[in-house]
Design brief:
The chain has 268 residues and is of the alpha/beta class. It is built from ten helices and seven strands.
């Protein structure tokens, strides 16, 4: 049961750690180690929001789902052997059979979902490697230096080609932020979308040009995602003064020009 609950997003690590402690107290160090591996994403969530750390988090997730799958598979085997032993003894009740079958079913469900997540995370890692030019993918030939991995791409992704961006685009280094913060989890989500579907899969960054200043009106998380991915230019949408200082039907509010200029002072 704890193995399956360990797959719950956000709180699953608590159940994996509980499982590990349980096995440790029982002296089953092999299972303790496997449950500990399943809790590895907790460590990944503590890492800073950098490209190299994205790779660490992805590998930790793969190890976690793999460990959970192994643990669930062993649970199915152990549960099946225990159930067969009870049935063979001729002393088992209908209730004990039900519990045995339920235990095998729960472990089977855990094996299925963790295995599915393991495959999905591995595919995403493969796409990240391709997007950053580290390799041609997990199963493809290595690109750099006659077969050596381009480790520099982990921390310094190659500049993306402007031709990948359809429509208006702008030099990322000339954009001035008007918001002093971003949320790492939001940035990570946008980065994954860009990696999977390309730079035009997210809305353009909305800007206002004023006296040679290029102000970001909306899209700071998108801007940071592009920056971390190594893009030198980003898709943009020009706004006019008439569009500033208004609340639109979709709930969006564009700050006034003066509010943007004041925000620049504390955001750059």
């Amino acid at each position: 049961m704890l193995n399956l609950m360990g797959l719950i997003p956000g709180i699953g690590d608590v159940f994996d750690i509980t499982n590990a402690i349980w096995y440790a107290l029982d002296g089953n160090w092999g299972r303790c180690f496997e449950s500990g591996i399943a809790a590895l994403p907790f460590i990944g969530n503590l890492l800073p929001d950098r490209r190299s750390c994205d790779y660490v988090r992805r590998v930790l997730n793969i190890a976690s789902y793999g460990g959970t799958a192994v643990l669930a598979g062993q649970g199915m085997v152990d549960g099946g052997q225990a159930l067969w032993a009870d049935i063979s003894s001729g002393q088992c009740s209908g209730w004990s059979i039900f519990l045995g079958v339920a235990n095998i079913g729960l472990n089977g469900a855990t094996l299925f979902f963790s295995g599915k997540s393991f495959v999905s995370e591995t595919k995403d890692l493969n796409k990240m490697l391709k997007a950053d030019g580290v390799t041609d993918g997990l199963l493809g030939p290595l690109k750099e230096n006659g077969g050596y991995i381009n480790f520099d791409a982990f921390t310094n992704p190659p500049q993306k080609q402007t031709s990948q961006i359809n429509g208006n685009n702008y030099d990322i280094n000339k954009l001035q932020k008007t918001q002093p913060y971003t949320y790492p989890e939001v940035v990570s989500s946008i980065k994954e979308k860009i990696i999977k579907n390309g730079p035009n899969s997210v809305p353009p960054i909305e800007i206002r040009v004023h006296d040679a200043q290029v102000l970001v009106v909306d899209g700071h998380h998108r801007l940071e995602a592009f920056r971390q991915l190594g893009y030198d230019r980003v898709p943009i949408k020009y706004l006019h003064n008439s569009q500033l200082g208004k609340i639109f039907s979709d709930g969006n509010y564009y700050r006034t020009l003066q509010e943007l200029l004041d925000a620049v002072k504390i955001s750059n």
